[in-house]
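2024-03-11 09:14:02 INFO worker-7 job=invfold-0412 stage=load source=structure_tokens
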């Protein structure tokens, strides 16, 4: 086996391989997938000199531990966390040299949820439908990391970014999501529509890569009948029978039978990836463009 590889010493609660995802396959029932916090994933790739499409690792809450078989340059971004190499603290948000055989430990998120690990050369697992992303809903792509797994790494670019630190946005203290109403806002009462954009919700602990679930006032439907299953998009705000809005994220299903009251602007979704349970959520209606 090539020495361009990482041995997984500690997989963490949920660590997956992610890249730009596999858009364009919804007609086949294949979700988009890809890094939930796209800007954070793009930044760590730039810091280690990778192309934008290179695959990174996305950790969830608890970080992970990796041992490279040959020297690599890494950068950690997204949720702030403690990073060490063989027990010695190293920089977060900047390129770091990790010698062959050294233990890179990415600690638990100190705020936010998901940290991103960029490795020079990218994670070189076999692509499926043009992407190396793990899709938790469909099962496409590589499985989540487990202890003892070995991940191949590609050849590095000649140079990486020369920076001391890269500014990154802090995880949100309040999540403000701009939404365009529809296509099924007419399925809700006027009172529910007012509540949706005026009341405060909170991020539910049941949230995951499929959707950000909320806790708060239930939205009352105007109709008791059921809606035939129809296509849904990234950022769709679906309202299940309990009346609490769910914001669809990268691993969302391609069709759904619950009414979609609005769609979140794509630019606001990366912040949703870092919103911890209990974070206040406000939906702000904006005009269709």
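2024-03-11 09:14:09 INFO worker-7 stage=emit residues=289
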């Amino acid at each position: 086996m090539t020495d361009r590889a990482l041995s997984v010493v500690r997989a963490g609660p949920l660590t997956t391989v992610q890249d730009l995802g596999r858009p364009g396959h919804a007609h086949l029932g294949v979700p988009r997938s890809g890094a939930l916090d796209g800007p954070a994933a793009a930044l760590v790739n730039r810091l280690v000199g990778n192309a934008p499409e290179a695959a990174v690792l996305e950790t969830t809450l608890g970080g992970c531990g990796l041992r490279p078989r040959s020297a690599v340059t890494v950068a950690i971004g997204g949720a702030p966390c403690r990073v060490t190499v063989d027990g010695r603290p190293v920089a977060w948000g900047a390129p770091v040299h990790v010698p062959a055989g050294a233990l890179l430990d990415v600690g638990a998120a100190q705020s936010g949820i998901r940290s991103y690990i960029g490795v020079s050369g990218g994670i070189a697992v076999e692509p499926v439908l043009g992407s190396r992303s793990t899709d938790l809903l469909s099962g496409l792509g590589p499985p989540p990391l487990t202890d003892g797994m070995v991940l191949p790494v590609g050849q590095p670019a000649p140079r990486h970014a020369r920076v001391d630190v890269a500014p990154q946005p802090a995880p949100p203290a309040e999540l403000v999501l701009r939404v365009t109403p529809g296509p099924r806002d007419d399925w809700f009462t006027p009172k529910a529509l007012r509540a949706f954009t005026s009341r405060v919700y909170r991020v539910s602990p049941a949230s995951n890569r499929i959707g950000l679930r909320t806790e708060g006032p239930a939205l009352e439907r105007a109709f008791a009948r059921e809606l035939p299953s129809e296509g849904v998009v990234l950022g769709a705000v679906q309202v299940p029978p309990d009346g609490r809005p769910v914001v669809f994220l990268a691993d969302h299903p391609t069709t759904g039978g619950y009414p979609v009251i609005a769609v979140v602007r794509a630019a606001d979704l990366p912040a949703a990836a870092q919103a911890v349970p209990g974070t206040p959520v406000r939906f702000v209606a904006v005009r269709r463009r």
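2024-03-11 09:14:09 INFO worker-7 stage=report msg="The chain has a mean pLDDT of 94."
2024-03-11 09:14:10 INFO worker-7 job finished
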